[in-house]
Design a protein that fits this description.
Rossmann fold; 6-stranded mixed sheet; alpha/beta; 13% strand; 2 domains
């Protein structure tokens, strides 16, 4: 089962995930925005102890907090780092809480397999695996990429009954994750938040929006990626300007555009006979257009 519905399973804490996180631009600010809420979701015993320590009782608000859905929605354009950020957030939390964990990434193949009434079964299988991996000293994270494909709003007229039933199953399973008492968390990633069913959006404890990199983040991305290449601060600033929205009809380059398209193509131009130069980088940017915004 696991081999067919999960792209991969990562044991946490993970040295590889921690290393990838160290190269994420803007990760710290995103993590700090979500950190407090994740602590409340994952450290439920600590929350009760806090209440009893300071107030000698379990405050009424504690039960309200414990009843929240452990659902985090990561919304934003393609190539803005949602998947690797989810991995990094999960890894940071297991380290902070002194626990082990598993990060389960649901395969996007489930969409194709779900067209004939199988989607509900696949959703069941995924959440059963989440519950299996969530132990007393172990956290489990289920990551659903392109969630709008299986969590589409049920108000859509073209939706088949099987697909509506699958969304109902998904909502039910999200509700049931609360029974794990902080040992399981669901991440949903989407490029189209407005396509996600309203009942699922209402259940989210946290919604984080991912944007294409700012001017400062593009400077940092070029500087980190090209550390060791002879580029001045002025040249790095110009590279950031050339990949910004002002120079590209209002649409800046995504993180992936720079990392996976511009930089590899620039290096391909000079490898193996010459050094990478500012001129080659500028020429490459002029030839590689930003990926279109997903609406």
């Amino acid at each position: 089962m696991a081999a067919s519905i999960f792209d991969n399973t990562i044991e946490l804490p993970s040295t590889a995930v921690k290393e990838r996180a160290s190269h994420l631009i803007g990760f710290e600010s995103k993590f700090q925005r979500i950190h407090g809420n994740l602590k409340l979701l994952l450290d439920q015993e600590g929350l009760v102890k806090w209440s009893k320590h300071f107030y000698k009782t379990e405050l009424p608000v504690i039960s309200q907090l414990l009843d929240r859905h452990p659902l985090i929605i990561l919304a934003g354009d393609a190539g803005t780092g949602k998947t690797v950020s989810a991995e990094a957030i999960a890894d940071r939390m297991v380290r902070e809480l002194g626990k082990e964990g598993f990060f389960l990434k649901l395969s996007t193949r489930v969409r194709g397999e779900g067209l004939h009434g199988q989607m509900g079964n696949l959703v069941n299988d995924a959440f059963d695996k989440l519950k299996t991996e969530a132990g007393k000293k172990r956290l489990a994270f289920l990551f659903i990429d392109e969630a709008d494909a299986i969590a589409t709003t049920r108000s859509t007229m073209q939706m088949h009954q099987e697909e509506k039933a699958a969304v109902n199953t998904l909502i039910q399973k999200i509700d049931e994750v609360r029974e794990l008492n902080g040992r399981g968390v669901v991440f949903m990633s989407t490029n189209r938040l407005h396509f996600i069913d309203e009942a699922i959006v209402r259940r989210a404890a946290v919604i984080i929006e991912f944007q294409r990199p700012s001017d400062e983040e593009r400077v940092e991305l070029f500087a980190k990626s090209l550390d060791g290449v002879s580029l001045s601060a002025k040249e790095l600033k110009e590279l950031a300007d050339l990949t910004g929205p002002e120079k590209n009809d209002g649409l800046g380059y995504s993180f992936s555009d720079i990392r996976l398209r511009i930089l590899p193509e620039a290096i391909a131009k000079c490898f193996p006979k010459e050094q990478l130069t500012f001129r080659i980088l500028k020429d490459t940017i002029s030839q590689v257009k930003p990926s279109p915004k997903i609406i």
